[in-house]
């Protein structure tokens, strides 16, 4: 409602500004009208006359400059137009020259090609004539030779016919000749078969003997080869392997010891770094307690009932009332006393996707919480909180389990099953928890974005105030948890030794009319070294937290995390001592590990040498054996190959001889059968011979013609190839000349265009300089005239002592009309003083209106910043506070049976 009123006020005020401006305009007009009744030589008229004179001088100068600039611009345009026209004419000439050069180049190439074609065709014709003449000579010679061969055959045939009686054989004579030839051939075949078989047998016997001798030589070579002793080699290898195994075991032991020592050193170094960083970054925030607060809790510790952990009004009425009164003082003293950490405001806090803190932010939240709580615990006489890796991880697990269950703590109290699951996971008796609904970390609107570490600290701070000082209605269940007083007079494991502070919220989760509700979890676990746990163990109780096999007690998890401001120097010194001790151990174990590794390396080297020697011996034996096998196998293969080659050669020779004998026999039989038995058969045979002679002669003539035509074709093709190559070369040269001409043409055109561009740039620069010079001249005159006008005003207007001042405005007193100057010397307008009041508005400066609006906006912003964001009606803050109080619940305790 306040904001709406502010906006309305801003609107009305802005409207009033506009209204005044309107009135001012009307008033100026009224002044002008009224001024006509004044003296003709008033200061106002002198100033107005001077102003008019100034304006006339400036106007005249501006007109003169404009005329000059326009004239120069016209001259420049004429120059450019003339140059452009000249360039166009020159380019036209260049284009025609280029076209002419292209035509001349092409015509020259055509003429050269025509001349070359004439020469080539003449050569082609000469070669063709020579070829035709040579061909005709060959034909004539071959025809003559053919005629002579025919004549010779005719003469031979005539002679054969004349001696016909000598060539005629009877059928009986033919058969006798055939039988004789057949018998002779068979005898030759039989002899050839006998010789062939003898040769084959001899070759086979030779192969058998050679293979036998080769096998004997192979066995002798293998007998001479010494095989290594398998038993001796294996024994040496076994001994060497045992030595390696022993050395490896010792080296592993040494390395494991070294690794553990390094891990310990690293953990101590990390802890030291954290402690040093925490000491550097620590900003002091402390809870101020009223007098009597610590004594009240000491009284509770001393009078606490057995195994009790609440402080109710019914059980402790006086103490309850005392603490409730002290709570009010404590809460009021600390509620607005949080000290912001400048470094933390620059450190972003980004929640995980499920609405939980990162592990690093959990550590920082826990460190901050412990720095607030431990001074109170120590003052009461309770062991201070520790922070361990386990307590941090437990807190993170609790937040994650709440989110897995989608648990609404605002409405359902603690998620007991989630806490039990985490306790079981970490093998501890229980996980203690105090929870505070958030209204600070994410603000009343629960907007968990753009958060910083300072926001997180602020949320933790206010949560602790609520849990400690607004806990009476919860019978102080949260206060007894955080202050560590539950362990007094108790045989129960009550956690409360090691703390982890986490946060989680449900995205979209609603409660009490709010969305995205969540809160801070103060989760604690027992420490095996705490006095309470040690006492319970000593008294015979079974305590999981004291079991060395529990997850919380494993190396790494039980390592402590530094607490800023709590014995930091002592802690740093202790950690440095641990680091020195761990470093010495690492150095010693490094030497031991190096020695073990050297022994291992030597044993491995010896084993490797033995293995190599054994393998080399085996390989050498196998290689030599393989070489022997290969050698004699190759020899046997070669013997067989030689034998097979000889057998094949013998078979081929035998078959060739048989074929030749049979062929010769058939030739003889054919010749015998072809012998004429009468004169007619003889004549027919002779005619066939003559026909064959004629056919052979014609074939030779045909071949001559074929060769002749091929040579003519080659002459023609050579001519075509020559012309094609010549034409290609001409075209290439012509294109090169045309390309050069085109390049020259383009360069000339570019030069003309560049000349135009350069001239235009020069003229434009001159024009711009002229305009700038004119403007400078105009400005100088304007400055001079303004100075003269100012001097005149100072001369004719009254002195400042005669002025009235209103809101930094200087007003000249007058009868009906006045002229005013502001503190900057600018003229202002003053309304007629009809009711003895002057309303001053700037005529030439709108800054007054802008400043008014700026002030209104700033006023609205300041009002907004001064009011906390509201959710719902004016009672929302009370509801949120009530929610934060009533949503804090204590966790019940688990009792272990006592061993008797």
From TrEMBL:
PROSITE patterns: GRAM_POS_ANCHORING
UniProt cross-references to InterPro entries, sorted A to Z: LPXTG_anchor, Surf_Exclu_SEC10/PgrA
Coiled coil segments of this chain: 58-100, 565-620, 698-725
Protein name: Gram-positive cocci surface proteins LPxTG domain-containing protein
Chain segments carrying region Disordered: 33-54, 116-155, 169-196, 215-237
A Pfam match: Gram_pos_anchor
Composition skew (Polar residues), residue ranges: 35-44, 116-144, 172-189, 226-237
Organism name: Limosilactobacillus reuteri (Lactobacillus reuteri)
Domain Gram-positive cocci surface proteins LPxTG: 868-900
Signal peptide: 1-30
Biased composition (Low complexity): 145-155
Keyword terms: Cell wall, Coiled coil, Peptidoglycan-anchor, Secreted, Signal
Protein's UniProt keywords contain Coiled coil: yes
Domain of life per record: Bacteria
